[in-house]
Amino acid sequence: MNVAVRETRAAQRLAVVDCDIHPVPKQARDVYQFLPQRWREHMETFGDHIRHGLTGQLPYPRMMASGMRTDSFPADGAPGSDLPLMQVQHLDANGVEHGMLMALGRGGMEERNLDLGAALATAVNDWQLEYWVKPEPRLRAAIVVPQENQQAAVAEIERRADDPAFVQVSLSPRASDPLGHRQYWPIYAAAERVGKPVAMHVAGFGGGNPQSGSGWPTYYMQDHYAMTTNMQHNVVSLVFEGVLERFPGLRIVMIEGGFAWAPSLSWRMDKVWERMRKEVPHLKRPPSEYVREHFWFTTQPVEEPETPEYLRDICEWIGWDRLMYSSDYPHWDFDNPRLAFKFALSEQEKAKVFRDNAKALYGLR
Amino acid sequence: MSRHIVARADEIAPGESKIVKVNGREVGVYNVGGEFFALSNRCPHAGAELCRGMIVGLMRSDEPGDYRIERKGEFLRCPWHGWEFDLRTGQSYCDPKSTKVRQFNVKVEPGEQLVKGPFVAETFPVKVEEQYLVIEA
Fold first, then answer.
1. Is A344 on the interface with B (CB under 8 A)?
2. Which H helix or E strand runs over A275?
3. Interface membership of A332 toward B (CB under 8 Å)
4. I need a surface site. Which of A29, A56, A175, A239 has the fewest CB within 10 A?
């Protein structure tokens, strides 16, 4: 059954857009140097704060080297902290034409100290620019925003609006409330206004809520799976709260949360909506229409059903123009662009998923 | 088919390995308790450099709360997704029913008693000739 490793020449030639690459600071001060003096002193006096009970610890032990590819550790610093290694090991090796950065740590996305959150978001965005996008023009950043401090989040979006280094707005799916709640609407209004998509990457840390609606998991495998349900809760929230009715130009990218569930979730939403739409009279169309129109899904980790062709049906439902390749470099469940799908894509499908959809969404040339 | 002297036998101690080139392809040579085995440095699942992975054993369990490690040092775990391959045969193994299989209670088990995984890493026979390791490929 080694058929999966056969590569076609066309696949090898195809330049790809990778929609999920994780940059990490070599040391905390790489980011904190961009904080105003007031907040640098805060960090020195009170220390780091993220919304997690085990700050500095993994919440669940990962089988693979703290969740990393074991071959991605540079000579010094953490995986993802070394641009030359990322270039050799991933960008060059896999023909990455553009790579979308997902800076997950230290950005103050869910910080409860609202002013600190605002300062951290600005600092992490400055760091992305100086340490990644300027030295490596293939990379693009997402605007990290302090999403519990919406006024500052909007200001941060506007600050980066005209900078082509920033192609989208990044939100954590483990916020104080499900992301459809109205306190987050100013962020959507700003994203729509500046014409940038909103991206939501699964969160291994953070938030006051577990991934799972049934409580805190025991094992990493549970947490890894529950990320997909956490993403689904946010889709349901965004749809039923009417966000997509209010912001018809909003484009949302779901990153690393799986995509095979999109059809069944939509069928379920449509079914209850048909019967109980009086509860949400602000919805004008079946929920599935909002899903298909407003959501893009990144592919990694591509589901691997025992009959690989099942996944083709799911891709057809979602639409070949809504799926975008992602690698998750340098994390352990990295998808190799040439081998990620276990069924054959046509040349046209391949071009869309691996390059053209992302280029169109992000306006890349 | 050509013969390649790839290392001196005393270069690779038990539990250790070395990546060598054979016909331009990278091959990992492993010393498993004094026996030598060689695998292609390419994971058949997703193309990682397999031989940069950890050498591990099998984790077995008869019931929740019970576990043991067997065949220590006989498996290679891929650095990306963690597929584990028998260094002797290149066969990947997985055994989702192992918590129920009572008869596995001791030390060494032939691979056939486990459920074979879907992938097989390419292997090469290694000969020890005097003090040199030779691969024919």
1. no
2. helix A262-276
3. yes
4. A56
